[in-house]
Every structure is written in C-alpha cells, then in structure tokens.
Design a protein that fits this description.
With 153 residues, the chain is mainly β. The longest helix is centred in the middle third of the chain and has 11 residues.
C-alpha cells in the first residue's frame, strides 16, 4: 500500500543490501552505515548524485509477477528496498530514512546486468520506475531494517 499525507510520501525500509567488495554478489544485511559523499560505507562509490540506490518493493513484485518468477530483490543490485512509497514521485525530493537524508536525483535505468541475473529482467524493470531511483547522501548515519522512510518535496 502506497501512503501519502500532506504532500509527504511515507514508507518503510524493508531490506538492505550491499556489495561487501567490488564485483561481489549483493548481500543482505540488517543495518548499514551511510556516509555523505560516499554512500554505503562498504562500497567503493564515487561522490556525487549516484551514491545510493533505492527500489520499491511493490515495483519489484510487479516485475517478478510479469516474469512469472520469484526472484530475490537484491538481484536488482539496489541498496535499499522501500515498501509503501511510490519512488517515481521522489525525484528532486529529500528522502529521510532513520537518521539519514538522501537527495533523490533520478531514475535508475536497468542495464544489461539485469538479464544476466534473469532473462527478461531488464525489460520487466523498464516501465514505471520499476528499476528504482538513485540519490546523494546529504546526512549520513546508520539505518536499520524497519526504519521509517519519508519523502518531502
């Protein structure tokens, strides 16, 4: 269920994943330290607009339903799985998750790696922001599964 009141979108952080080292498969964890100018503490990312990636639980479920399979959400290679929030409405907004703040800059376009995860996944993630969004960390901290997520324009 997507929640909105007073112009704010609300959801919950359902899951967290990261790459323990470059090139490795994503691993699920229950908490993550996030740094401004870097993103997830464990990942080697360049500072800028693509420090962290977010995926909608509902969009992932729709993509899997379209493919007729159940796939782990981290196949998308996103860092955060958000339930109850329409991420397409968050472009340009500031997203608060626990103590951290993320400036959402754009839609994450699915790449060829998606079809390596599962044939047809790239196409299934293409419509309606199903691939998620990316953003820049404004305020860092530690986030945990179950933290509230709020987007404000």
């Amino acid at each position: 269920m997507i929640s909105q009141d007073n112009g704010c979108s609300r959801g919950i952080l359902k899951a967290i994943a990261h790459r323990p080292t470059d090139g490795q498969v994503m691993a699920e964890i229950t908490e993550l330290s996030v740094l401004p100018g870097r993103g997830p503490e464990t990942e080697n990312r360049k500072p800028g607009k693509r420090e962290i990636t977010l995926l909608s639980a509902e969009s992932w479920a729709n993509a899997c339903r379209e493919l007729g399979v159940e796939l782990p959400w981290w196949f998308r290679r996103a860092n955060l799985l958000i339930e109850g929030m329409d991420l397409s409405t968050t472009i340009g907004a500031t997203l608060s998750i626990g103590a951290i703040r993320i400036k959402v800059h754009g839609e994450t376009k699915p790449c060829g790696l998606m079809d390596q995860q599962h044939n047809g996944l790239r196409k299934a993630l293409t419509p309606n922001f199903r691939g998620g969004v990316y953003g820049q960390i404004l305020i860092g901290g530690t986030i945990r599964v179950g933290d509230a997520a709020t987007a404000q324009p």
